[in-house]
Design goal:
The complex is a heterodimer of chains A (111) and B (113). Chain A has 111 residues and is mainly β. Chain A has no helices and eleven strands. With 113 residues, chain B is an all-beta fold. Chain B is globular and about 40 Å long. Classes of the chains: A mainly beta (111), B mainly beta (113).
Chain lengths: 111, 113
Amino acid sequence: EDKVVQSPLSLVVHEGDTVTLNCSYEVTNFRSLLWYKQEKKAPTFLFMLTSSGIEKKSGRLSSILDKKELFSILNITATQTGDSAVYLCAVEVLSGDKLIFGTGTRLQVFP
Amino acid sequence: DTAVSQTPKYLVTQMGNDKSIKCEQNLGHDTMYWYKQDSKKFLKIMFSYNNKELIINETVPNRFSPKSPDKAHLNLHINSLELGDSAVYFCASSQPGPYTEAFFGQGTRLTVV
């Protein structure tokens, strides 16, 4: 069965810290890996990764994919309280154009 | 100019009732989805429609019936609601094909009492 696992489940840090969120997957017919940020409501898209070793960057957030070891990391540097959210990793699979989500990492950033 | 909109945002109902959640997208996408998010924040796909045709039906009880009157709308009807149906239901849309992200609605929090 296709599976996406995120760690840690929960993370509490102070503003200014750097965090690394992990996502590992076991799926057949991998197509891409996506990161979403979910605050109170809808998940909002952050990154899509399709190729190994190529870092995607947006401001203080960056992400990279390793298709050999089947994982991705999401880094957030100089965290701010506004980064507090659940970060969801999802894998797009070829069969049926669907996303398989991990359980998410809840990040809390305190001043 | 909301991209994916769901109504209602909150729904509280008694066991055994039938209810519907509506979803509309104005992004011109061909593919729409329903996801269920449980209390532990785990998002799981329920249905996928491409241009009004059912593509994915992920072992969801047949009390759940999606209806797509046109490609901009995908409604979810639930019969004989059970306590375990309580969750947040998200509608999403995307372009078909590979490497396209899904855009999510704001969710409908369903509470069955």
